[in-house]
Amino acid sequence: VAVTAEASDNVGVVKVDFFVNGKIRGSDASAPFVYEWDTSEAPSDPGSYSYTLAAKAWDAEGNNRMSPSIEVTVYVPDEEAPTVQLTAPAEGAAVRGSVEVTVDAQDNAAVTQVVFFVDGVKHGTDRDAPFAYTWDTTQEMDGMHTLIAEARDAAGNTGEHTITVIVNNIGPVRGETITVDLPGGATMEMVGIEPGTFTMGSPASEPGRYPHEGPQHQVTITKGFWLGKFEITQGQWEAVMGTTPWLGQSNVQENPNNAASYISWNDVQEFIAKLNEAAEGSELYRLPTEAEWEYSCRAGTMTQWSFGDDESQIGQYAWYWYNATDVGEQYAHAVGTKLPNPWGLHDMHGNVWELCQDWFGSYSSSAQRDPTGPATGSDRVVRSGAFYWDARDARSASRCSAIHCCFVGARLVRQGQ
After folding, report:
1. pTM: predicted TM-score of the whole model, two decimal places
2. Within 13 Å and on the Cβ side, how many CA atoms surround 178?
3. CB 166 within 8 A of CB 95
């Protein structure tokens, strides 16, 4: 700020000293007398700060006189944007119906309002904390949507936070079960899986980890689906296909409730084709993608198995080496005889390896939506471990190629809408 002084004397003014709050800050020895005051000495916190300015003039004979002082105010504006955090729903969450969208907004001055946007369109404003907006998702299409909360403070500064959520009004509800009729008179129970986001793969620190389980990466499943509550059984397979590919093979116990084994990826495609033909030629049934399989297996968990990290509990959830083969029961067991995972799916750990739709290949570290694996490959992915394998192979992230695993079965997806 340029502080100027007018000074006159009968013998001539030779210098003017400038004072701020009683302390000399500068001098000018030639008219017009000016001092450049750096007001950044004011505190950095937003607000108004008072200062006293004065000037003292000197003539050639050493006489001096102080000017009357003046009071000025230095205004430090609030230039800091508010911090904003959408606290509900969570990033990547599946939502339906009426959803309470909540925000935590903080600022060094008061936050005066929060504006809510859906896909760039303003939907509501709240001027009172706690800031919230009730979003009617029934007015939206099912699928991915972007939520933005924009907070504004008293100085007009704005800050925002953006998340992506998945509207799932017409897809399956998590945990809901249906029973579908299969050709040949059998039935199949299926469990609703809502869309959502999860971390696929295992961390480098996970005990028993195989290198091809990484790198970990974020995956979003954008559409809900139905997944078999159990693996395909011998009874279901024979009813639909009229074949028994496990007969005459080693490590088999014949039982219509036991998981079907010794079935190939191509065999399962024929099974699926018969189901879709019975459903009037629709593409209703298919194998799960590898991402859908792990998402369903984890069921919201990040632990080695869907029941946690305590290996001593695995016998309650899985048929694996130590409670099957090691005790003379080296065969696929009846489905559903072990505890389910948190989403109500049985035998996601152990019993038989389960085929996925994908080719076996390496992971990418980048975030993905509805990945379907490599475009080509030499063999398909299998998951879950089996009665002939150890607990490490039954972990949620464990994966193998079908050519390296025997006792292979499957469970099916039914499209969700």
Report:
1. 0.80
2. 16
3. yes
